[in-house]
Amino acid sequence: MSYLNYRYWLGLGVFFLLVGCCCSTNNEEDSAIQEQQSPPIFHPTHEPSKVNAPYSDIVQVDNLYFLAGQIGKDHTKGTLVEGGIEAETRQCLENIKAVLAQHDMSMANVVKALVILDDINDFAAFNEVYKTYLPQKPARTTFAAEALAAGAKIEIEVVAVGD
Predict the structure, then answer these.
(1) Tens digit of each residue's pLDDT (9 = 90 or more) over 14-51
(2) Which residues have C-beta within 8 Å of that of residue 161, sequence separation ≥ 6?
(3) Which pTM was predicted?
(4) How much of the chain is helix, strand and coil, in % rounded to 5?
(5) Which pairing describes strands 79-80 and 73-74: parallel, antiparallel, or unpaired?
(6) Phi and psi dihedrals of 110, rounded to 5?
(7) I need a labelling partner for 5 at 20 to 30 A (CA). Which of 23, 82, 104, 161 fits?
(8) Which residues in 15-96 belong to E strands, given as ranges?
(9) Alpha-carbon span 126 to 143, nearest angstrom
(10) Element (H, E) at 101
(11) CA 143, 146, 149, 151 torsion: positive or negative?
């Protein structure tokens, strides 16, 4: 075998050895991470009217809680509250508080919010109510989308961190 062929095969062998070491290390790290994580828990709803809904109100992954979006629906009456964006925002946030309370958390546990408005012109009015519920200022994304569920003016979903 010529010197150049020898260097080629030696280099190729070292390359595959390094790739193999890197891949096995990554796989070991991935396995360790997967062993540390619990499987997701899809908690049942606390609202009798939502028992047959095709989604969970809250899904837990370790100490992270992902809440489904809430609209300004009064669950005792089964209808949207009256009074416009302020009233619907307040009811959304009260609904979120109720879900969090079922898991021994409060609004102080919220670290991320996603807010969808039916009309972006409602932003200032929504924001006035919102900041009274979440003074810790969680990360937030807000945008407008036409035609929310049930004719709602707002929908809010959050992520919370539990103990």
Answers:
(1) 444 444 555 545 566 655 555 677 899 888 877 777 77
(2) 63, 64, 65, 109, 111
(3) 0.76
(4) 45, 25, 30
(5) antiparallel
(6) -75, 130
(7) 23
(8) 41-43, 58-61, 64-67, 70-71, 73-74, 79-80
(9) 12
(10) helix 84-101
(11) positive
Please report where in the chains the tokens 């408005």 appear, as a residue: 117
Pairing of strands 110-117, 70-71: unpaired
Question: pLDDT per residue over 81-123, tens digit each?
Answer: 999 999 999 999 999 999 999 999 999 999 999 999 999 999 9
Question: What tokens does 158 get?
Answer: 């959050």
Alpha-carbon distance 119 to 2, whole Å?
A: 75
Contact by Cβ (8 Å): 160, 120 = no
Strands 110-117 and 154-161 turn out to be antiparallel
Question: What is the end-to-end Cα distance of the chain in Å, rounded?
Answer: 65
Q: How many residues does the chain have?
A: 163
DSSP for 115-147 reads EEES-GGGHHHHHHHHHHH-TT--EEEEEE-SS
- The letter for the amino acid at 48 is P
